[in-house]
Amino acid sequence: MTKKIAILPGDGIGPEIIEQAKRVLSALPVDIDTETAMVGGAAYDKHGHPLPEKTLELAKNSDAILFGAVGDWKYDSLERDLRPEQAILGLRKHLGLFANFRPAILFPELAHASSLKPDLVAGLDILIMRELTGDIYFGQPRGVRVLDEGPFKGEMQGFDTMHYAESEVRRIAHVAFQAAKKRNKKLCNVDKANVLETSQFWRDIVTEVAKEYPDVELTHMYVDNAAMQLVRAPKEFDVIVTGNLFGDILSDAAAMLTGSIGMLPSASLNASKQGLYEPIHGSAPDIAGKGVANPLAMILSVAMLLRYSLDMSPLADKVESAVSSVLRQGYRTPDLYQEGTIKVSTSEMGDAILKALN
Ligand code: IPM
Ligand code: MG
Question: What CATH number has the domain bearing residue 8?
Fold first, then answer.
């Protein structure tokens, strides 16, 4: 049956990188029907809302969503509900996309582009499993209030709420254990159980779920230590499972190990395996429209879409091989450029990928 793919380019470099992803999709033998819609600041400018009803409906009725990026400083003064980021947060929440797969894989050709010494990152292949619809990102109450007691009485106070319900922890733990089972059978739970009630509760549930996966080795690590280990000996990790906020931070750090944040794709799945695919980098308004953005994270997100939403692993492998191949040939966008390599623009990188695919 023809699968429906929603394409949401968004802001900043989103449209440029999505363009290259579309070229990749149309070069492949896939039976899909695509429809494009506005999201983020672009949607706010045109329709007064970062996630217009029409875009949300399209996303809900699609098998998969290919998402570029959202955000621009020029919207920073808007009230929070109207800021571009609400589009991606709203899509995650409305579609229940709780399981965020953020693989950090080092292509051997980029070992020298990593901020770490090549031997520390050579062969790096870790998976960060980030919970995506709970935590302090969505917790209520939140806001700004006037304090009527305590040492800061009479002052304004900003506040957010961190919480996780048992079923929220259980379902992400199951996805993480299942992923670890298919890999090196090592799962590291990352939390802040030495300080936070939410984390202690999370840790207890993960430990309970572990009983159903006796063949997976479960360890626990505090998030501050995990940040340190990620830059000290990242290859010690196989799969990391963590909450929304910690996962946001650790995945940016992990991205840099692979040479550039422009290299990391992600998949966000819900219980019915509907998926949203996006690079983990943002909209990078500072380089938007200059043709210098690295489209590889976006293209690798297409590979994840093929694998998880279309069940076409051989085609996903083919796209990933094409990425390896262009890197081997020396093509680099400016974020990865080093002497001795060939500097290319966003669309030239797309050309090279298409050539490698054929
Ligand atoms: C990410 C981004 C988002 C997040 C922003 C854009 C809301 O940083 O996907 O990692 O914090 O989740
Ligand atoms: Mg982030």
Answer: 3.40.718.10
